[in-house]
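Next up, a specimen:

>
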Amino acid sequence: MDNLPKRIVVKIGSSLLTNNGRGLDRTAIYEWARQIATLHARGIEVVLVSSGAVAEGVVRMNLPERPKKLPALQACASIGQMGLIETWWQALIQKGVQSSQILLTHDDLAHRSRYLNISQTMSQLLAWRVVPVINENDTVSYGEIKFGDNDTLGAMSATMIGADLYIILTDQDGVFTDNPRTNPNAKLITSERAMADYLFDVAGDGGKWGSGGMLTKIRAGRLTAMANCPTIIANGKVENVIVRLADGETIGTRLTTDHADRLIAKKQWLATHLRMAGTLIIDDGAVKAITEQHKSLLPVGVLDVQGDFDMGDVVEIVNTQKVRLAVGQVGFDSSQAKQITQKHTDEVLQILNLSDNDKAIMVHRDDMAVL
């Protein structure tokens, strides 16, 4: 039993939570709440990522259909979120489990200080034996600060809290070798590396199977891979599915990871990062070092530092013509970085009062994605 997960993120999509896109399926929600309470009673920490706010808002406003314009969608999300969190709270508290609401945008997790603050808040909630219920803050999310799907939000949440398992519940039985709705010979893939490229080929496009699409779930599995967290994609209508998956039963598709995959996944995550906290302008020698020799970026090769960022933030690395060459997690905050530009390692150690050469690296190669 020691190898069973102790901290789980469960994401439930709109296709399961709503009655054909019209309002919340409270019977189903109460059943999932019972399963979560069962795990909670065992001492397993659970974080829930729940869609459904817009659909509930449509019902509460008695609209004939889901709005298409952004202001109306955001208004529906604002109205429906109250019903969504109220339903989850009632369903969980009846089983003796306290819950909380967390609304996030991509911007919240892109900035290191806010990321750490959210992480600390979630850690406190889990320590208090509270189940956080997370959803995207659709009322303010737009464009570049929007996750776009809760599969990604759940994956980033799982990575942030160091989850042992990420469960994505959908209206499909898992990932198949082909579309099972059109090919009766399609077979369920029960286990595969999250970084296996062919999964994108069998997943189809974003809207093909279900509301979020299987493609976003594969991408989510790749995100959690960098934190050594397996992802399971399973049918949420299977009896007692959350408990059975936590017990290690084979249901749906399990996406696994290893050390090599974790490095690949992290670099891909960096490469697709939406917002840069700052910019490092590097000289020709540093360009060659990171692009051809695959070395870490040292302060001596950095000509200029732009922006205001914290250690661990994602920054862009550009040449003197301002062409973006790479992105990476910076080893210093902007104030420190500006002090050590064009400085050799021994000078960096002296200026910042460091004792370890390994700490005198601007961006480590394992924390960098060359574009």
